[in-house]
Design a protein that fits this description.
alpha+beta, 9 helices, elongated, 361 residues, five-stranded antiparallel beta sheet, 23% helix, Rossmann fold
Length: 361
């Protein structure tokens, strides 16, 4: 089933506004991950799609049909919460069968066994929710929605309550389940690992709106604004203030007394605009090399992680420049090379829109 949200607004009594003209699309059979910070309206979005809440304005369209006025049971949409929502006093099979509605006992049992077999949990149907693993409970919740006839699965922070190791296992299980189902999946999360692992496409949400929608690669390589650039990636993208100078080629002249950096193959629809005033050069940590280059910067701090070290360098003016993976000692001054290929340029105002330019080499 294809899902489309058109200009959704959700206001609550008292003036709080959870959705502010939100629009997005999920193609039939696709997996869309909505990534955003806590409190941005992600769970409200799922409840509106499921029909558990009505939007103040705007529309939800399911296979091009307006879903306004349709009860949750009529939408073909299943919402799976973090706790799976199984009945603790019933067996797994009984909980799943509750979704069969008015089907006969024989029909209900057949649908339960078909869905359980499809998801690999036929062996736990006689057990209670407390007697099975978290992954099996997630599969049981999905099986229940299949019995209900859901063609769209909505997952609300599916691994939020798990530690890092358990979350990685859960992501693998969810990816495996999705591969078995012919269903559209929309999940919301604040965890970029979860979003990138499970989403064929990503929508980055902030303050009730979608800031950018695209493939994971597009979101990472070409963030639409500074918020996305800083929110996606660990360590996040660094921003270096300066100007683009046209002088026998294109150069980036950073603020302060640092040497300018060549911008080979600098071009784009807004190339001339980028050269009109101050800009912010956005650089991913993997594009910062230590031990080479003409810049000399002090090391502000070093964060040693399990598999790498992140080095944070102090720029003139106080901003930090991240390099990862890298090795250095806090307090020392090191030579730094900033590789500008595929770098991003942003307007320096509060919005920080990404300029339509690129550096090719």
């Amino acid at each position: 089933m294809r899902v489309e949200c058109v200009d959704l607004v959700k206001r609550y009594p008292g003036g709080a506004q959870a959705l502010r003209g939100l629009s997005l699309r999920a193609a039939r059979g696709s997996a869309l991950a909505v990534l955003g910070p806590s409190g941005c309206g992600k769970s409200t979005l799922l409840r509106v799609i499921a029909g558990l809440e009505e939007p103040s304005s705007g529309a939800v369209r399911l296979d091009n049909a307006d879903a306004s006025g349709l009860a949750p049971a009529q939408r073909g949409v299943g919402l799976i919460a973090q706790d799976a929502g199984l009945y603790p006093h019933l067996t797994i099979g009984e909980s799943i069968a509750m979704a069969a509605g008015r089907a006969t006992r024989t029909e209900a049992q057949q649908r339960v066994h078909e869905s359980a077999a499809a998801l690999g949990i036929a062996h736990v149907l006689a057990r209670a929710p407390g007697e099975i693993s978290g992954g099996e409970r997630r599969r049981a919740a999905l099986a229940r929605e299949l019995v209900r006839g859901a063609k769209v699965m909505l997952l609300d922070e599916p691994t939020a309550s798990l530690d890092a190791s358990a979350a990685a296992i859960a992501r693998a299980e969810i990816a495996e389940i999705r591969a078995r189902l012919n269903a559209t999946v929309i999940l919301v999360t604040h965890d970029q690992d979860e979003a990138f692992a499970l989403g064929e496409r990503l929508a980055v949400m902030r303050e009730g709106r979608i800031d950018q929608e695209g493939s994971p690669e597009e979101i990472y390589q070409k963030p639409a604004n500074r918020f996305i650039a800083a929110f996606v990636g660990r360590p996040p993208m660094s921003f270096i203030p300066g100007r683009v100078v046209q002088d026998a080629g294109a150069w980036f002249a950073p603020a302060g007394d640092l040497p300018r950096v060549a911008l080979a193959g600098f071009r784009g629809r807004e190339a001339s605009r980028a050269a009109e005033g101050e800009v912010l050069l956005g650089v991913r940590p993997s594009r910062v090399r230590l031990g080479a280059g003409e810049w000399r910067l002090p090391v502000a701090r070093v964060e040693r992680l399990v598999e790498r070290s992140d080095v944070f360098l102090r720029l003139p003016g106080g901003a930090l420049l991240a390099a990862s993976p890298a090795e250095a000692k806090a307090g020392e001054t090191v030579r730094v090379e900033v590789q500008t290929v595929h770098a991003s340029f942003f307007e320096p105002d509060a919005v920080g829109r990404r300029l339509d330019v690129e550096v090719l080499g």
